[in-house]
Design brief:
By secondary structure, the chain is an alpha/beta fold. Helices cover 44% and strands 13% of the residues. It contains 17 helices and 14 strands. The termini are far apart. The mean pLDDT is 95.
């Protein structure tokens, strides 16, 4: 079996590499010549644990290829995955111009039956637009080549994407023909041998499943953040509340950790897109609008704690920031809460010293040298009046608090992820602020 994956971003590169890992011949295509050359030389465009080693291994084995030439790659492909970006428009809708452009190019160059699969996160109805684009290009060529369009949404967690692909909770595929179903079942057979289920459904349902899944997880996060804020007001401890409700099997203990808001490339974009899709159909997504509003407010919570402690004028104050990426094990800073915190701190006159294990280069691309980047977490503390923990990287979980005390001017810790023991730190003489904790 031969497949083509168009797009070498997060989804496309992980998808192509993992298919190559099970012996399938894969060509990953991208219009960015430099990115393709870098991949051939083992230089990754993203940070994802285990990805670099797997890319190099499969490229050297001749199973994984990189190209800028879609017209060549698509010839003879059994399956072509469209995994290009769908950035949010100003109105919150997903921008499909890249997806449709790829569909047109596939129609211009395909020479035999194949399944065209939308892997990008796209609104309901996109597969139909992709099919129309392919058909229009075939008609322009005056050829009648059969094809099918399928939807195969990804459910990859950044920082654990390799395991998620190789050992999936489920594989969702939307198809409109038995032939397409058989081909997709054959393609995914190596991943279902150990009992991981593949769920076939109609195409619109598959497209909706992706948005519904991410929106449900975002809802759990915002709900727990709302509860945490109320806990502070009424004198409850959100960590105990979380344990109390998480033991209920109907609720579960995942995605109920309070914090400083969700970010990344998926949740913010997908929630906005689903709200927009509903509005276009005349339906008001009241719950999701509240989810989005709570999340935007939550990104301000830690800054509000800072000014409540120091006052609104932070001139002359130095704040250390541990963590920049929106979550651990990734360098992704899209919609990261740290960006909101940094912006507020700088506007208030503070100096910010920050450390992140992998995201500092990405931060420089986004905010330049408006803050000081340090070689490790302890260097960030030198002369700091307060410490904000923004991302719960493993190396931040058990720091040397005696060393922290010696390096800092003040003994104030703002824990945006509740990873420290409030009682223990207060006994050590620190002023401690968490989320949903008094």
């Amino acid at each position: 079996m031969k497949i083509t994956v168009v797009g070498t971003g997060y989804v496309g590169l992980v998808t192509g590499t993992c298919f190559a890992e099970v012996g399938i011949e894969v060509t990953c295509v991208d219009i960015d010549q430099k990115k393709i050359e870098n991949l051939k030389n083992g230089i990754m465009p993203i940070y994802e644990p285990g990805l670099e080693e797997m890319v190099i291994k499969n490229y050297e084995a001749g199973r994984l290829h990189f190209s800028t030439n879609l017209s060549e790659a698509i010839k003879g492909s059994d399956v072509a995955f469209i995994a290009v970006g769908t950035p949010p428009g100003e109105d919150g809708s997903a921008d499909l111009k890249y997806v449709i452009a790829v569909a047109r190019e596939i129609g211009q160059n395909m020479n035999s039956y194949g399944v065209v699969v939308t892997k990008s996160t796209v609104p309901v109805g996109t597969a139909e637009k992709v099919s129309n684009a392919v058909r229009e290009e075939l008609e322009k060529r005056g050829v009648d080549i059969p094809y099918d369009v399928a939807s195969n949404p990804e459910f990859l967690k950044e920082g654990a994407a390799i395991d998620d692909f190789l050992k999936p909770d489920r594989i969702v595929v939307g198809v409109s023909s038995k032939k397409a179903e058989d081909i997709m079942a054959k393609l995914y057979k190596p991943f279902t041998l150990n009992g991981h289920p593949i769920i076939f459904m109609d195409v619109p349902s598959a497209e909706m499943t992706k948005y519904a899944a991410n929106s449900m997880l975002a809802t759990k996060i915002s709900f727990m953040n709302d509860i945490a804020n109320l806990c502070e007001i009424v004198g409850a401890d959100v960590n105990l509340v979380r344990k109390g409700i998480g033991s209920d099997a109907r609720i579960g203990n995942k995605f109920i950790y309070p914090g400083i808001g969700y970010g990344g490339s998926c949740f913010p974009k997908d929630v906005k897109a689903l709200i927009k899709t509903a509005a276009e159909k005349g339906y008001n997504m009241r719950v999701l609008k509240a989810v989005e509003e709570v999340n935007e407010d939550q990104k301000n919570v830690m800054y509000n704690k800072v000014i409540n402690h120091f006052g609104s004028d932070l001139k002359g104050k130095t704040i250390a920031l541990w963590g920049l990426s929106f979550k651990p094990k990734t360098d992704d800073m899209r919609e990261a809460p740290s960006l909101v915190i940094i912006s507020h701190l700088l506007e208030a006159g503070a100096t910010v010293r920050a450390y992140d294990p992998v995201a500092m280069e990405e931060a420089k691309h986004m905010i330049g040298n408006t803050i000081t980047y340090t070689k490790d977490e302890y260097e960030a503390l030198q002369g700091a009046d307060g410490l904000i923990l923004a991302t719960e990287w493993p190396e931040f979980r058990f720091p040397d608090f005696a060393k922290i005390e010696n390096l800092m001017n003040g003994k104030v810790i703002f824990d945006g992820r509740n990873i420290y023991d409030a009682k223990d730190l207060r006994e050590k003489g620190f002023t401690y602020y968490g989320i949903g904790i008094n």
